[in-house]
Structures are given as structure tokens and as C-alpha cells.
From TrEMBL:
InterPro entries: F-box-like_dom_sf, F-box_dom, LRR_dom_sf. It comes from Aspergillus campestris (strain IBT 28561). It comes from the Eukaryota. Residues 5-36 form the F-box domain. Pfam families: F-box-like (PF12937). CDD domains: F-box_SF. Residues 98-126 are annotated as: Disordered. This is F-box domain-containing protein.
Length: 382
């Protein structure tokens, strides 16, 4: 039976395998060497979520658009569309033993634990959770990475192990990458609830994805779309990542550290005379690094600031995009979102779009026409 199956052309085998749910696919991969190779080739799109609780996982699935409310009900089976695999892993009580061990001294002395000490414990356990999430990610990427064209990862953050797997196994073939680390509905886990509101800490981990220094020869280079939520990537790392991926047309960033004027000016080819280190610019004076971008979403990023206008009538002139001049350089842009960027004036954006940019879809930072339209929900009712 199996030898008949293996005698089929590879395309036919892959087509048949694409109907299997993930577990059956993995089981098939264990049958023989040939079936192992086939099952790896079959896995082209992978979404992985690693959380502490099933409910955390469900809500994150909904928010990321991985599932519709109807699908969440039958969540246990992880409904897959053909060739699209979604894997959810629940890791409750990570290193609970360590956590308890850390508690012991204080229970002995019967003294209330100092706030800073328990905070330290908390961030240690949080780091352990992140390591654990990345270990799962690494395992899957090491096995399936070379055949993946689309990969999404939902967790608390990426660490060096996960980044290394990503940048070595998915280097040239991966087209679509999403890293989602913002899950503000999780308020009862190891993550401090307030940490969801800000980008993750800056980290050298991102250097692996751009392949610099000791990581030369690694890094992503074939990305067409990149989604990052609550990423600690710095403006410079972000520049390098975009520069290394010239086919990038979709860039969606939410709560990202790197979304700052220096990155955006570079992206739109705006030169600031004051800059000393403009080696990135010297390559080609009139090249606009972001000119291929069709979709650019910058959400909940507060470091983009529109300059205030001395006279309201300034708005009418061609300086109404002051602070956002970089948008002019992005000639192919069809969708721009500045949703929830609180230091940008919606009025300026609206005016600039009408008079200068003329981009098909523009999402304003907030709705300014009808300030009464915000719906307030009493937290007690939730
Ligand atoms: C943007 O606004 C926030 C408040 O939402 C403020 O704390 C911050 O300093 C502002 N950032 C800049 C660069 O002006
Ligand atoms: C921006 O301009 C385009 C083209 O003029 C228009 O179709 C679109 O509705 C505008 N968007 C907003 C939010 O004003």
C-alpha cells in the first residue's frame, strides 16, 4: 500500500497530503524516509501559538484573525484550511517548581516579600516562559523551516534561540512572516499586564534576522510581507531588515520600538542634513528604500509626531504634512494606517491626504469629526 503510494508523482502525493490534519501529516511523516521528506515539503504555511492558558490562546487567535468566533467553539481540533496549519500549544505552570522555590525563603522567615523582589521573580519566570515558547518554535522551524513560505508566531517575545532558527532555516524561502507579541487580554499570566502597552525591550536578538556582525551570512532576505506586533526592534535594525528585503511590499507594525522619525525619514528618502551617520543613504542619493511598499501600517506608535502649526491656515499650504514628509516618497502606497498614534493630528493627516498624498486607504490616528462617537464600556460590566 505504502509502496504504491510512494510510486505516485510527488505533486500528487503532496496534493493528497494537503488534505490531512496536522497530526495525521506528522504520523505519515514517520512511516518512511520518503514519507518524511514528503510531509516536510507539504508544510508550506504554519501558524504557531504558545500560551499558558487555552483561553489566552483563543482570544489571541480571534484578534490575529486566525479564527472566527464560530471556529473557536471547535477549537480543540484546530481546524485547518488545506495546506495551512495552525498549531496551538498550551504550556501551563511553566517552571512552577522554580517559582515556588523562589518563594520559600520568605515563607520561612514569615516576612512579606518586598515588591521589587517579587517583581524580579516575576520577570525571571517570564523570561523562562519566553525561552520555553521559543524552544517549541525552534523545534518546528528547524524541521519545517526550509519549506515554509509563510510563518506566524504568537508568543510573548522572540529570543536568541528562536531568532537563530528563523534566520538560518527560513533564510531565502520564507515570503511572509508575522511575529505577534501583543496580547493585552492576558492579565493573569506571568507577563506583567502593563508590559503589553509598550514595545518589548530592545535586543541584539534582531541582529540575527539582519545577519550583521558575528551573524554574517544569516538573516531573512526574501520577505514580501512582514507583520510585527510589540517588537523591540530598534530603528537601525528595522532599517537593515527592510533594506535586506527588497521585495517587501507589505509592512504592518504595531507597538514597535523602531517606528521612529529616523526610520521613517530613511524609508521615505527624506534626508536630514543634521545626520552624521548617513552611510545608509550614500549608496544612492535618490533611492527611496520604501518605494515598493504598498501597505504600511504603523499603529499605536507614539514617537511619530506631527509638528504643531502656528496658524491654522498653514494647514492649507503644502506644509500640512510637517513631520510626515516621508510619506511623499512612498509612491506606491495604497494603504496607510496611523491608527492609535496619539501624537499625530488626524486633521493634518486628512488634509495631507487630500492635498498631497492621495492614498486610496488612509486610517486616521483617531476619529476627529465626531468626538462623541467613542463607546465607553463600564469595566464592571465585562
Ligand atoms: C507622545 O505622547 C505621549 C503621550 O501619549 C507622550 O508621553 C510622549 O512623550 C509623546 N512623544 C513624543 C515624542 O512627543
Ligand atoms: C485619501 O485620498 C484618496 C484619493 O484622493 C481618497 O480616495 C481617500 O478617500 C482619502 N482618504 C481619506 C481618509 O481621506
Amino acid at each position: 500500500m505504502s509502496s504504491h503510494f510512494n510510486a505516485l508523482p510527488l505533486e500528487v502525493i503532496l496534493h493528497i497530503l494537503s488534505y490531512l490534519p496536522f497530526e495525521a501529516l506528522v504520523a505519515f511523516g514517520g512511516v518512511s524516509r520518503a514519507s518524511y521528506r514528503a510531509h516536510i515539503l507539504c508544510l508550506r504555511r504554519l501558524r504557531l501559538a504558545v500560551f499558558e492558558k487555552r483561553i489566552h490562546c483563543m482570544i489571541s487567535h480571534l484578534q490575529a484573525g486566525w479564527a472566527t468566533p464560530e471556529q473557536v467553539g471547535k477549537f480543540a481540533g484546530d481546524e485547518d484550511i488545506r495546506g495551512d496549519y495552525t498549531i496551538s500549544i498550551i504550556q501551563p505552570n511553566v517552571k512552577r517548581i522554580d517559582h515556588d522555590a523562589a518563594r520559600k525563603p520568605s515563607t520561612k522567615t514569615n516576612e512579606p516579600r518586598s515588591r521589587s523582589q517579587s517583581q524580579q521573580d516575576r520577570s525571571r519566570v517570564q523570561d523562562q516562559m519566553i525561552r520555553m515558547q521559543n524552544r517549541v518554535f525552534t523545534k518546528l522551524v528547524n524541521r519545517y523551516g526550509p519549506s515554509l513560505i509563510k510563518l506566524e508566531f504568537m508568543a510573548y517575545d522572540i529570543d536568541i534561540e528562536g531568532a537563530q532558527a528563523l534566520s538560518t532555516k527560513c533564510q531565502h524561502t520564507l515570503r511572509h512572516l508575522a511575529l505577534r507579541f501583543e496580547h493585552p487580554h492576558i492579565r493573569d499570566g506571568y507577563m506583567r499586564p502593563s508590559s503589553w502597552l509598550h514595545p518589548a525591550p530592545a535586543s541584539t536578538v534582531w541582529n540575527l534576522l539582519i545577519g550583521i556582525g558575528q551573524y554574517q551570512g544569516m538573516g531573512m532576505s526574501g520577505l514580501e510581507s512582514l507583520v510585527m506586533e510589540r517588537a523591540g526592534i530598534t530603528p537601525w535594525q528595522l532599517m537593515m531588515l527592510v533594506r535586506n528585503n527588497p521585495r517587501l511590499t507589505v509592512l504592518k507594525m504595531r507597538t514597535c520600538r523602531g517606528v521612529q522619525p529616523e526610520f521613517l525619514d530613511w524609508l521615505g528618502g527624506v534626508s536630514r542634513d543634521t545626520e552624521e551617520e548617513d552611510f545608509l543613504r550614500t549608496e544612492d542619493k535618490c533611492h527611496v528604500p520604501g518605494e515598493n511598499l504598498e501597505v504600511l501600517w504603523l499603529e499605536n506608535c507614539h514617537q511619530i509626531v506631527t509638528k504643531s502649526h502656528e496658524h491654522p491656515k498653514d494647514l492649507a499650504h503644502d506644509s500640512c504634512d510637517l513631520g510626515l514628509e516621508w510619506v511623499r516618497g512612498l509612491k506606491n502606497l495604497k494603504s496607510l494606517s496611523l491608527n492609535e498614534c496619539m501624537n499625530i493630528s488626524s486633521e493634518c493627516v486628512d488634509r495631507a491626504n487630500q492635498t498631497i498624498w492621495k492614498i486610496d486607504e488612509v486610517v486616521l490616528p483617531y476619529s476627529y469629526h465626531s468626538p462623541d462617537s467613542t463607546i465607553e464600556v463600564d469595566p464592571a460590566l465585562l
